[in-house]
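Input record (one chain):
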Amino acid sequence: MAEIYNRIDTDMYFDKQSIAPILEYVNSDIITDFENKSVIHGLTEIWLCRSGTGEMTIESVRRRVREGDFWVMNPYTLHSAYARQDETTEYLILGIRNVKFGIPDDLNKSWFTPTDNRLRTYIEFIYREAKKPEQNTPQILSKLLDLVLLETQRYFATDVIPYNKKESSKLTDSVASYIETHFNQQISIDELTKMFYCAKSTLIHSFKKARGVSIMEYAMQCRLKEAQLWLRKSDMSVSNIALNCGFSSMPYFYKYFSKNVGMSPTDYRKKFTENAEQND
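The corresponding structure, as predicted from the sequence alone:
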């Protein structure tokens, strides 16, 4: 199992105060018998499968990729790359700020295999220029980025849309959405900062300001809400409900539930069972 990851930052060649597209980085990522963790970025990424075959998972949809495939991921799209035991896959990835593509929700529409090598050539030139910058590198990268965006726009037959939503607002929305669908798993601040590529202090303070509670408390609220639903709608045992909703232990589940609901999980279920019988 191996991953060779090489990120080259390129934002210093662009005006960071501009609302025009900014090439923030170029990544070379080579993976063998490896699946990296799901991540989310606050910018648009254009991926090129430079060599080999592998798999990509985007928003829980997994599909095979091969050399020459391209795909676009708009800001805050959950994704991960995977290579089987007998596979080695190399990707070139452009991270582009201030734009997104007007592609439909159908993820299949974000993939394409060009019939010529123009787009691949532009991306390869960007990578080469970023690795060995020279006197005119800022101008060259800017022109090449324009060509990449125009060529991608042509393949998708869609618009390149300005995108400058407040980072903190979109970040907290995306973190909350992730918690709401993964609350039954272990969630840590450190893992979230790696996943969302943000500073720990920024994540903690912006989430608390936007949601009124800490990240961990928000996860607990999601677990509690789901446990209440299962207690009302199913005959699953209380212990299995606690486990399936992500509570670390039965004593803690009873303590947290009783404190926030005003009764034990058993009494809560009994109450709703009796109400349902009376309504019948």
